[in-house]
Task: structure prediction
Amino acid sequence: MANPISESLNEAPIIQKAIIIIAIIAAPLYFFAHYSYLPKNTTLNQLKRDVVKLQIISNKLPLVKKSLARYTRQFKILSKNLPNKKEIPNLIKRVVSLAQRNRIVVNRFNPSLVVNKKKFYNTVNINLDLISNYASLGKFITDLSDEKRIIIPGEILITGVTTKSENLATAHIALRLSTYYFKNSRKK
Result:
């Protein structure tokens, strides 16, 4: 018994035979390319781009490590200038002593509770109500900057300027100082 498909193929012209053979070969190639090769090729190209990006990042790693080491050294130096929590009362006494040494009258002295709680450190503000001349105030702020621990002058409000003599004017001064301390005690 003869197969009708094979008989019709035998009788078909050569062009039809070639088209059928090409279709038989092309169909699996099309499905392979469309459903297997192209999606995998797209994924492969994306992975190649990712590898290039990662290589660029990894080439920067020595610079990042160098910067980290530099920042770590700077942090260690600067952190030595921050008081720890136990030093805050003495630091506050030192501020008052510096004011008195510079002939500044301290009318009101108000250290605040912790105002800014950051991840590693807290901020303590010290509000001062002073009577001083400009030269004494400048010397007082300069003395604060010479202290071992960081004390930052913040808001300064000068009001009620009175002239005592030709070269001397005193004023009522509201001054906010800020200092910082680590949450955990540092090892010395």
Remarks:
- DSSP finds four helices and four strands in the chain.
- The CA atoms of residues 69 and 188 lie 20 Å apart.
- Strands lie at 105-117, 121-133, 151-165, 168-182.
